[in-house]
Amino acid sequence: MRSLRLPAVVTILLLASAVAVRPATDAKPSVDWPSFRGIRGAGVADGFPTATTWDVPNKSNVRWSISVPGLGHSSPVIWGNRLCVTTAISGLKDAGLKPGIYGDIASVSDDTEHIWKLLCYDKATGKTLVDRTILAGVPKVKRHTKSTHASSTLATDGTKLVAMLGSEGLHVFDMNGTPLWKKDFGVLDSGFFMVPAAQWEFASSPIIHDGVLIIQADVQKNSFLAAFDLSSGKELWRTARQDVPTWSTPTIHQVGGQTQILVNGWKHTGAYDFKTGAEIWKFNGGGDIPVPTPITGLGLVFMTSAHGPGAPVLAIRETAKGDISLAAGQTTNEHIAWSVPRDGAYLVSPVLYRDLLYVTKTNGALSVFNAKTGERVHQGRVGNGTTAFTASTIAADGKVYFTGEDGDVHVVKAGTFELLASNPLGAIAMATPAVSEGVLYFRTSTGLVAIK
Length: 452
Prior knowledge:
Layout: E1 62-67, E2 77-79, E3 82-89, E4 114-122, E5 128-137, E6 155-156, E7 160-164, E8 170-174, E9 179-183, E10 207-209, E11 212-217, E12 224-229, E13 235-240, E14 251-255, E15 258-263, E16 269-273, E17 279-283, E18 295-297, E19 300-304, E20 313-317, E21 322-323, E22 336-340, E23 351-353, E24 356-360, E25 365-370, E26 376-381, E27 394-396, E28 399-403, E29 408-413, E30 419-424, E31 434-436, E32 439-443, E33 447-451
């Protein structure tokens, strides 16, 4: 792993995440993985041994492998024996998914009828348990060549499955795939704010906490953060947001006796009160295409974004209040413990593991920080510098996993930064993996793979 100079990147992969309903102190967080990157979006699954080496094309260390129709970057969610994803099936034989490091902002031209599905499988065998058609029709907005029409990850609390399909609506099911209720928010136009014709599709995922469903919809017009009763669909509150389109999913975090909703943004990164939607703190600035999910630990909130005027890594004190924006030339203030102005991630959500913060750029350039102080303890590279990384980083069993778009998963020993293995999945991989009871689950452009 060597130092690497980053090329300019202006592409976007619409990744999504959800936040779990279980507390961050759950003794065995890797049993259920009810959201993108698991419990509270942390991306950490300790408690079981996980694989270091495998080879999917040669069927080495593969528990099972199945095909999944259509395209979807929605990551697997797992509860009990069920592993579930969504997918969107185009009417074209080749739907036009284009991996790699490139700067094309154009949308895919595909006005064929699509079929959106909810699919659930037995996590131990890959056997199909649910195959539910959610809806069919021509997508109301276009997608980027790196995106899909099913990029938002499901959220579950073990009783319900929530699928957010952007302009195609919000759909809630029981665990057997029976529809319970749905909402239509109209057209949610997610795209490059400087070129509105460049539509890239919606990706922020729902989050569930304490029987309440939270939706962040930062789009071209009428952006909002809203809360709904999970059982009935009743809207509890809605707070308008003034920001450009974003593709990040919120995170739930408790500070003292208050539950907060943390959101990434450009004009409005911040925290909101879970019960009322009232603003708690606000940060203005950073990258103008926010994608990574907020993560928490050590009394800090970690935010990163990139593109345009900035690419910061921010360590914000969880007790922050009011406007905490940095003045020109500042890297710290009363509410920001430390920050790095130009080393943030564009697409990949970071991972906090054993007091180290791993921040990965699109081309695999890796910076590792002492999460308490902001000291950079390692700078290197995963991959060969030509492969793009869009799936978010996860950590388990003393290892950190980096999934490249080319399907190679690079396994690094935590703390030492030693590359232990690079393992092929045999297909394009843009969705973030899930972990349950020591088994790694990868979604590729063609299917699902379980590694043990």
